[in-house]
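WARN retry 2 of 3 for item q-0093 after timeout on previous attempt; input resubmitted unchanged.
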Amino acid sequence: MTKPLTVLKSVGPKLVPFFKTVAIYFVLFGDEERSSIFFCIVKLLPIISLILFVLMHGMNLSEYYRYSRRILIGLVLSCLGDAFLVWKKTYFEAGILMFALAQLQYARAFGWRPFNPYAGTVFAVLSGIIFYHLQTSLEGIMIYMVGIYVVLISIMGWRAVARVRFFDDLWTWTKLSSCAGAICFMISDLTIAVDKFVRPVPFAHPIIMVTYYAAQFGISLSVVDSPLEELMNVD
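OK item q-0093 returned
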């Protein structure tokens, strides 16, 4: 397992663009969103920085980079989703679709071992409660799109949590990082859903974006150990 301090020294410089672009975003647009090309570019820059971060840790078509490839695809789909949501009045459904596909890629990256049905049950119950409260404010195709999205992000969260085995020697800080990222993603999207469909959430914009960038950061950081993890999992 790579030690956090060692990783900080080796990957820290590669993360400088991410932190700088996040700072720029909040300086310029920390209070509210805009529907403009400039806002779109500034909003996407942190995710583009994470795409480059993942690529700098190596990428090819071998099975050892399978995890990294799926995280990379998820980030690219998230970029597309972010762009669509800049003009959410017109492209909100397209944005949901892109993020749904991103959640699917993240879940595939996290894998199905260990299965951990107990965590799965908790996430199933929570997603059911959330959708029950949301569906009364939905109509038309949004009922089905939001329902499918809730299922997919809950599966993603379940698989991220299932990877972290605290009570043995198999957990790593990178797995913990992806777990924290997945939980932040769920908080961000839940805030979006409540604010859009149920009632206005105080400070919704900063809450959504802080948790969203934290989510993508945590998930992206998990690629650091991924080739070694894939090598150890080869049967």
